[in-house]
Specification:
By secondary structure, this protein is mainly α. It has a single domain, classed as Up-down Bundle (Four Helix Bundle (Hemerythrin (Met), subunit A)). Helix 1 packs antiparallel against helix 2.
């Protein structure tokens, strides 16, 4: 497969995965009180991450295996100033996906 076709295939793969996460986030959030907002937020974050990875791939920029959106944004050739301000002010927060490790006590 020629390099351009491979690049298009990689970018298309990231975009397709991002679209699935976007649809999932929308469905969960449309469910209102019935839907777990935490799951909607998780899929929205995943969507943004995958779109960023698609853009970085298209630009030919290598990126580490990470879920840190801020780290991916910093790799972009042109960075929106509002995003940089948010990052430097500690605005990027990670949501705890898994519960804290429980303390097991003997009966």
């Amino acid at each position: 497969m020629p390099a351009v076709e491979r690049l298009v295939s990689v970018v298309r793969g990231w975009v397709q995965k991002a679209e699935i996460d976007l649809k999932t986030a929308v469905l969960v959030l449309q469910a209102g009180e019935e839907g777990p907002a935490e799951a909607g937020a998780f899929h929205a974050q995943q969507c943004a991450e995958k779109y960023l990875k698609a853009l970085l791939s298209w630009e030919g920029i290598d990126f580490p295996k990470t879920h840190d959106i801020g780290q991916l944004i910093l790799l972009l050739p042109r960075k929106p100033q509002s995003i940089l301000r948010r990052r430097s002010s500690g605005g990027w927060r990670r949501m705890r996906r898994l519960p804290a490790t429980p303390v097991i006590t003997s009966p």
